[in-house]
Amino acid sequence: MAEPIIRAEGLGKMYMLGQAAQRERYTALRDVLGRSVRNVGRRALDIARGRAPPARPRAEPFWALKDVGFEIAEGEVVGVIGRNGAGKSTLLKILSRITEPSEGRVTIGGRVASLLEVGTGFHPELTGRENVFLNGSILGMSHGEIQRKFDEIVSFAGVERFIDTPVKRYSSGMQVRLAFSVAAHLEPEILVVDEVLAVGDAEFQKKCLGKMGEVSSREGRTVLFVSHQLGMVQRLCSRGIVLSHGRVDFDGPVSAAIERHMTAMAHRQTEDDERLLAALGGYEIAITRVETFSASGQAIDQLPWDQPFQVRVRLRVRGPVAGRLLGVAVDSHRGGRVTTWVTDLADVVAAGDEHAEVALEVAPGILAPGAYSLAVAVTEASLAVIHLRDGESPFAIVDTGSAMAAFTNVDYGVALIPGKWSPAASPVPSDPPAAAAE
């Protein structure tokens, strides 16, 4: 069995939080000694005057990563996902050798190119041309290698007209295009990309995804990709690692990883909404629960593609329902909104009801197999939002024998649009006979 190109064993990274930790970080020894003498004098003066000495600020340890372990084989494309503060960027910085772990170790069997921040290594006073050579050298490219690839780098970034203009006059989008182009043409064994592609426009994002796919599939290089755009992760990656509170919460197929992440986010949204309701004293109309049910009335988180299902929304009503709307939207884990249903609350909630439950029937065979969640909102007719709950009731549509099931790794899209197949009314005329050679 081949050795993994990346192996992490018991990785941990600890930071010290608090004023004391920040103050001591870059302080010279003479300043520390001088301050210690002054502090002793102040404490003695406080005691003499009968005042309690001030409490010393304490630094608290914070583990950004704790006991993280995994192996990545050569050529794998791995998405690292998790909510903000889960430890994703810290992990990538350790893998890129930007920072050292506090415990554990990581073994890397190849050259790493990292694109963690927009324009890292760019000098604003230098031109784009000069920065290509500077940034390429920082990333480990030789001068000859940069010269050979220079035209390709500039063409990919789309900044040919401005290549001799100082970078300080570039937009952030131009900078990220040029920075990504340099890193992508480094031809590393391992490419590490943090959430930077969101800065570029849609056309450039498509080019980046194509380049990263080419790097992994055609050239057999390893890619680690961090993004909150789950559609990009789904499209690019075959494996997903979910981080939660600095630990690996899940490591497996990317679809299952995204579903796990969405479920965790939905639970967190529910907790946040409950805290918000308690803090604000509630809304006039509040969404208290969102669930999906099968046709038989069972609460579900997955169902066959050819079965109907029901969305139930519970409401607490402390205001008028007239002129107010209830909307339920379906979001795909790939990052797009599939469809939205809207109804007038007055049609489904009786006047005077303080608690109500609304049911939405969804016909079978509409959603393609995949993972989904719901966004539910109560709005005014003028589209002023009264209460919104996003990422609710994650569920999966599973293929139990559609025509597409004969294929593997097929992108169904997100909707199954009915169509009628039949023989053509009249046969297609056969091709005319080829003309005889003269």
Structure in words:
The model is unreliable at 19-27 (pLDDT under 50). The protein is 29% helix and 31% strand. It folds into 3 domains: 19-58; 62-253, P-loop containing nucleotide triphosphate hydrolases (Rossmann fold, 3-Layer(aba) Sandwich); 282-406, Coagulation Factor XIII, Chain A, domain 1, CATH 2.70.50. The radius of gyration is 29 Å and the shape is globular. It is an alpha/beta fold. The strands form 4 sheets. The protein has a 6-stranded mixed β-sheet with strand order 5-6-7-3-8-9, with helices on both faces. Strands 11-17-16-13-14 form a 5-stranded mixed β-sheet. It has helices spanning 19-24, 29-48, 88-95, 128-139, 143-157, 172-184, 202-217, 230-236, 254-280, 345-348; strands at residues 6-17, 60-72, 77-81, 103-108, 112-115, 190-193, 222-226, 239-244, 247-253, 285-294, 302-304, 309-317, 324-332, 337-344, 355-362, 370-380, 385-398. α4 (128-139) crosses α6 (172-184) and α6 (172-184) runs parallel beside α7 (202-217). The protein is built from 10 helices and 17 strands.
In brief:
This protein has 438 residues and is an alpha/beta fold.
Distance between the termini: 64 Å
Lateral arrangement of strands in the main beta sheet:
5-6-7-3-8-9
Range of strand content: 25-35%
CATH class of the largest domain: Alpha Beta
Helix content: 25-40%
Structural class of the secondary structure composition?
alpha/beta
Q: Mean pLDDT score, rounded? A: 78
Radius of gyration: 29 Å
Number of helices: 10
